[in-house]
Amino acid sequence: MAQTLLMPKATAIWLVDNTALSFDQIAQFCKLHPLEVKAIADGEAAQGIKGLDPISTGQLSRDEIARAEANPNHKLKLSEPKVRVPESKRRGPRYTPVSKRQDRPNAILWLVRNHPELKDAQISRLVGTTKSTIEQIRERTHWNSANLAPMDPVTLGLCSQIDLDMEVEKAAKGRPLPTAAELGATLQSAQETERLTPSYEREEEKEKEIDADAVFRKLSSLRSAPKDEDEDDQY
């Protein structure tokens, strides 16, 4: 892995302020133009940037600075890193062990049925297959379609649950929101709700009328009862 200087402009500021290196040496080390280094020294550039000590970060040694100060033609060199960081491998198609390749069609069928929102490229990344195979399984034209059974690729060990969840989440972001019909909405229309209110009021009025008639009948029966008793006493 090629070594690169961290924060070159901040390092140039520190070297200008703390060493006797020439502008050309600092410019060569920090990958800057000599005029830019001169502007930093004059306070015309990088005024809001704090200097970074390359010695504390392990990118430059004091001996290397001393050699460069003694010899204007000496070019500064980055110190060898104490820890080697391995280069990240280029991510390509997922490798599937030979023992598990026969399970891929079953995993593809499971993904197609349970996660129809996944794109072919996402399924290909998950189980390490080709788009043509996915299309054949989706359209039931695969040579072994009659014997395929949907099986979870996580259970088969073809991918991790985290990878599957990430792909499903990505696919869900681009999916349109479900319509009312898909959600099974049962809301009534405005006309139907408007019809309910008057009928409800009419029912209440009817109940009130019935209750009022009953009250009047009771009152009339109470008034007539004493009169009948008086008439019986006279005889």
Index terms:
235 residues, mainly alpha, 11 helices
Tally the helices: what do you get? 11
User: SSE order in H/E notation?
Assistant: HHHHHHHHHHH
Mean pLDDT equals 77
Q: What's the end-to-end separation, in Å?
A: 131 Å
SSE class: mainly alpha
Percent of residues in beta strands? Answer: under 5%
Morphology: flat
| Oligomerization state | single chain
Helix content: 40-55%
Main sheet characteristics: none
Unreliable stretches, pLDDT < 50, 5 or more residues?
Answer: none
Output the radius of gyration: 43 Å
Description:
The longest helix is centred in the C-terminal third of the chain and has 45 residues, at 190-234. The N and C termini lie far apart (131 Å). Among the domains are: 8-70, no CATH class; 99-174, no CATH class. The protein is flat. With 235 residues, it is an all-alpha fold. The mean pLDDT is 77. It has helices at 8-18, 23-30, 34-41, 62-70, 104-114, 120-127, 131-138, 153-156, 161-173, 180-183, 190-234.
Which helices and strands occur, and which strands form pairs?
Layout: H1 8-18, H2 23-30, H3 34-41, H4 62-70, H5 104-114, H6 120-127, H7 131-138, H8 153-156, H9 161-173, H10 180-183, H11 190-234
Helix pairs in contact: 1-2, 2-3, 5-7
In brief, what are we looking at here?
The protein has helices spanning 8-18, 23-30, 34-41, 62-70, 104-114, 120-127, 131-138, 153-156, 161-173, 180-183, 190-234. With 235 residues, it is mainly alpha-helical.
